[in-house]
Amino acid sequence: PTFVVDDERPGVLGAVDWIFNGWGAPAWAEWDKSARIGAFVAEASGAERIPSLLVNEGGAIHVDGAGTVLVTETVQLDAGRNPYATRELVEAELARTLGTTNTIWFPRGLTRDYEDFGTRGHVDMIATLPQPGRILLHHQTNPEHPDFEVSRQLREFLAGQTDASGRPFEIVDVPAPATLRDDDGFVDWSYVNHLVVNGGVIACGYDDERADAVAAEILADAYPGRRVVTVPVRPVIDRGGAIHCITQQQPRVGA
Fold first, then answer.
1. Within its chain, how far is the Cα of 213 from the centroid?
2. Which residues are designated catalytic?
3. What is the Cα–Cα distance from 9 to 107, expressed in whole angstroms?
4. Cβ atoms within 10 A of the Cβ of 238, count?
């Protein structure tokens, strides 16, 4: 589930239980057991379950804690997920469950994410919000990669957006690793996909010493006071996903 807290009910932990259907009901997916995990974790953690009729996943949203949420048109409005949804309905449900007031609709995700085993555009591969008003954006620097043009388009799109307070975003480019391809085609390796924990940041490492170091420096600047630790992620991403994809923060509530 996506854990939430409510300023008007201190000490109460909420858990938004989205509907899950294997990232848009692709032919290869089976999700009967997976669809029950949100409710199971909510109960195990003692959280108040908040059921939702929206098909959604943790990697499909990012929030700044101050009213802004990042999504992609190709996930929340995916016909395989929410065939009857509109932007207005999705925004209303995100407001109800997450308390957001401003939704940034990215037009798409990374190229590889639209192949058979992709998520159809999870936002956690392209952008995140380390603080209100600031966005870390995946940046493919090599014009030989199709995401070079995708990165350009996404940056151009963001230049016209504002956060929930009406501020233009400070956009921080996070360069991709130098590797362009693996055995299956163009890679979607991203340092934007990381986990923020108490006192630290767990970052993806791609066996690219220079790019890994640059990304760690950018993340250290984005999260002052936190220690950035880079871990090898190739075995994880080869199975589909990265650090943020396989984790979910649980906030502490109460004293």
1. 22
2. 245
3. 35
4. 11
pLDDT score, position 7: 84
Task: Count the alpha carbons within 13 Å of 187 in the hemisphere toward its beta carbon.
Answer: 21
pLDDT in tens, 226-238: 999 999 999 999 8
Q: Which CATH class is domain 58-246?
A: alpha beta
- Per-domain residue ranges for the chain? 58-246
| SS3 label, residue 205 | strand
Q: Scan for tokens 């199971």, then name that residue.
A: 40
**Measured between alpha carbons, how far is 168 from 134 in angstroms, rounded to an integer?**
9
pLDDT tens, position by position, 153-169: 999 999 999 999 999 99
Residues in the chain: 255
Place of tokens 């159809």: 120
Strands laid side by side in the 13-19 sheet: 2-5, 13-19, 48-55
pLDDT at 255 over 70: no
- Helix/strand/coil for 227: strand
pTM of the predicted protein model: 0.97
